[in-house]
Amino acid sequence: MKILVATNDSDKLILFNSALKKLGHHELVSVTNSYDAIYKSRLEKPDLVILDISIEEKNSPESAKHIREIYLGDWIPILFIVNFEAETIKKIIAAGGDDYLLNPLDETIVLAKLKFMLNLYELRLKNEENMRKFGVLSAMDSLTGVQNRTEFDKSITAKINDARSQDAKFAVLSLDIDHFKMINDNLGHHIGDLLLKSVATRIKKCLGMDDFIARIGSDEFSIILGEIDHPEAAEKVAQKIINGLMTPHNLANEEVHMTCSIGIACYPVDGENPKTLMQNAEIAMSHAKELGRNNYQLFAQELYEKRKNTVNLEEALKFAVDREELFLTYQPIYDLQTHHVVGMEALLSWQHPSLGLISPNIFIPIAEENGLIDSIGKWTFRSAFAQGAKWYLAGYHQFKLAINISPRHLLQKNLPALFTEIIIKTQVPPHILEFELTENASITSSQAENVLADIHLLGIGLSLDDFGTGYSSYIRLKQLPINTIKIDKVFIDNLTSNTKDAMIVKSMITLGKNLGIDVIAEGIETAKQAEILIEYGCPKGQGFYLSKPLSVAQMTEILQQQHNTKKS
């Protein structure tokens, strides 16, 4: 039995070690904080977790929730070490705790609790073995008809044993459907289930007789390719699968377009045991997602350290709001003719206590991937609305406050109600607010369009960010109540050297004027770029040449100076 203990009290560790020795041979893994408890739970998959609430009283209950999420519904007992306080005990039970030990620890009680948990563990193993023996646990995934995780674990162990004895090589592929949750949320779980069946069928058509496929998670598949001489053979299969899944899936009168990300790990160079091999295939798959999805990646050793850092960031990000580590800066938007500030974009930043300033380009994708974007978004909206209200009440009325919004937020039906609540509480005038939608964002569901329509009815403007980089720029202008388009920096970068980019920028400015839509050029970094944009009649601009992102105090000072100048 493997036991994970999270405590910074060496006396408690000594006590647990002593108790475990009396119960027989068991493995003890120790960490000193809640971050490491979650991280080690991912890597070690313990059979029992003990969390000392005294190390981080605020975060320990949350740690239990995150550990529960790791196991995809499989039960793992979690004990808390607490002081006898009824409210604390209620919190830890609500968070997923199964039992508790009271401070100060008594060796006899600790021994009794551990013995009870050991008996439960052995009973569970025996029950599972009996169920397998009598055929209650099927080898098949009931939804897709491919093998399940239990069979995969057995197969990869057997494959490694065979390969080791024959000095052979093989590959493991970890496959994840891109944006599967959004497919489920937009089209319904029935379509999601049909898609999983279709994906499993198409993957099987890409495999050989000696290959093996299993569904090991909600939208995750693992594949064992038979003996291969070179990684290139695995790459060919991965690309074949990607191509096969990209063809539209016709499901119950719905045409579903989807892509996948695949990670490849090869035996023995990328791992000589099931745990390492699978872990490295998953790391490679995560790297494929980071590179834009819809691709495959081979595992490389440097990815391990990168992934470790990402996991650490992910766990730290879960507590960033509560620890007040997030903050907003504001980048001014200028009228290019008058050089007056006519607005600002709220930009989210994260000041990590030990890693320093972390760019939103790094942590926002992590937040979107694991669902943290919901709570982070609420904090951002409340903070930005409140600051906008302060500026307006101070007498600065001629500005628009732009705030980025994630496609995930648009799946929340109660978003307009949330904004209404914040508007009432902060007294911010809705007409000074503008939400920026990423032009590449997937806004195809009727629910998302309805949410945007309701937001627009509140008097809040909508801006299309990164305009010109997506495949549906003009369709978005037709479908959505857009007030502003922001010309993407990629066109501004080459404005002085590429005549095609210059003509595209000029046409976008003309399009905006003809449609009565405001136009902002993003990423202006040189005087020459600003000069050309003024010549083309671009009304507004933003970028480091004009101003870097500013603190609240710096932004307030600019607004005050501009206000005083107009009065005089």
Low-confidence stretches: none
Mean pLDDT: 87
Helical segment count? 20
Name the strands of the widest sheet in spatial order.
13-14-16-17-18-19-20-21
Rg result: 28 Å
Strand content: 15-25%
Report the principal-axis shape.
Answer: globular
Task: Quote the distance from N terminus to C terminus.
Answer: 78 Å
Fraction of helical residues: 40-55%
Q: Work out the oligomeric state of the chains in this entry.
A: single chain
How would you sum up the major sheet? 8 strands, mixed, barrel
- Tell how many strands the DSSP assignment holds: 21
Going by helix content, strand content and strand pairing, the class is alpha/beta
Write the layout of secondary structure elements.
Elements: E1 2-6, H1 10-23, E2 27-31, H2 34-44, E3 48-52, H3 60-70, E4 78-82, H4 86-94, E5 99-102, H5 107-133, H6 149-166, E6 170-177, H7 180-187, H8 189-205, E7 212-215, E8 220-225, H9 231-246, E9 249-251, E10 254-256, E11 260-267, H10 274-290, E12 296-298, H11 301-317, E13 326-335, E14 341-352, E15 356-358, H12 360-370, H13 373-393, E16 400-405, H14 415-426, E17 433-438, H15 446-457, E18 461-467, H16 473-479, E19 484-487, H17 489-493, H18 499-515, E20 518-521, H19 527-536, E21 540-541, H20 552-567
Helix pairs in contact: 1-5, 2-3, 2-11, 7-8, 11-12, 13-14
